[in-house]
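Inputs:
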Amino acid sequence: MRDEQLTTVNAVPGASGVIDSADAVVTVRGLSKHYGDFVALDRLTFTLTAGTITGFLGPNGAGKTTTLRLLLGLAEPTAGEALVFGRRYRDLEQPTGMVGAVLESGDFDPGRSGRNHLRMLALATGIPYERAEELLNLVELGRAADRPVRTYSLGMRQRLGLAAALLGDPELLLLDEPANGLDPAGVHWLRGFLQQLAAGGRTILISSHVLAEVAQTVHSALIITSGRLAGQVQLDQLEDGARSLEAAYLELTGTMS
Amino acid sequence: MSHLVRSELLKQRTTRTTLLLLVWMTALILLVTLLHVLSLSSAHISSLDGQLKVVGWGTGIGALFAALLGAMSITSEFRHGTIRPTLLASPRRERVIAAKLLAGALTSLLVGLLAEALTAGIEAAGLAARGIHIHLGAADYLQLLAGGAAAAALFAAIGVGIGAVVRQQIGAVVGLCVWLLLIETTLIGNIPSAGKYAPGAAAGAIAGAIQTQSASQLVAPVLGVVLLVAYAAIAAAAGTLATTRRDVA
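Outputs:
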């Protein structure tokens, strides 16, 4: 799969010449989002092909979360398009069976138990409760499942978010800063978990501002800054994994003097 | 659609919000009804009209808490961010609002029933304790229970609509309380010719009684139903538009 990856557009700011192939799982084309005068995204273009794990890197405020929200149909683009499996998210017949997402905001009602959080989402999509139980065990929340989420640690919330994203057994996972706030053991667990998911042929996009975390998990990295694509890096083409990813990142985001 | 309604009903059951609303409602009804039935002069409370005005508190309080239940079913999702997983599971937003309208209305049938039954029961007990004859008949009680339940269901829809437009929990809750407890009471007290067409007064018309207002000053029950259905439809339409047209942060 690795050599089938998208066109490398190393250090081409605002690159727009990426051709989406037939098996594009994610297609972002000329995507812009303005909030009044503030330009959150500026003609962002990239594609993701099936079976790849891609890092979505950039400083805080670069537009990573905005891109994910547009892909998920939570917000409308000002211009351009954000497609999953060639269609807008809201036009998918069974969206949770195709796309799973963990958003950075950690969206739980603190008074509701983890089990009931999964059940309300399972009910809404016609997924049996057994699937929720299966996932509670998979993310090792079985024993805490009946406690209200307000008693959960950050790591437990991240795992509950992952379980919710996996309810429909989706082919594409969009993860917003999944390692945020995790302790080293949690980060280690997450890495193994993601690699296991990827081994099943899923396409995964992981946004992060922690390079070292992503370097060991992803095949390639999209680097964005100020709402524009700064470049794309193929990790297997770098000589020394994490360290040269850092150099590329600093160069592309212009944070290195 | 039915699985979305079931999801909404599960949401209602799985936080303490619904239970707390019911506890607060019961406490408020207990307080208000006892205060009136024990402190009003015999002259005031010995007539059918006086007794209707007291039992009418059940209509007003039931409608208020049904509206709060409806409003919180959506504002709590914005407050805690669960609106995002909710919309990911069901990206057709108009369906989510429709499910909230239905689930809110279903639960609020019980809320309205409970409010009216409590008020009627406490009033009857208070009157009996004071040795005052009860003028309310079976037909009055029947209209009170059935009408109060129906009015509460429609008020839940109004609450969902307002909650979807306002999004902010405190704003929606304060707005509904101020409207029903202050503005409507002032309106109907000072300009009854216009005030009787307001949503709360329409609920009173359906149930046959609302606090401080004689049935004779309210519109006919059928007109009350028409008015309240219209208000609920307008609120639901506004809430649907506001939800489908705006971004979710």
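Remarks. Strands of chain A lie at 24-35, 38-49, 53-57, 79-84, 99-102, 172-176, 203-208, 220-225, 228-234. The radius of gyration of chain A is 18 Å.
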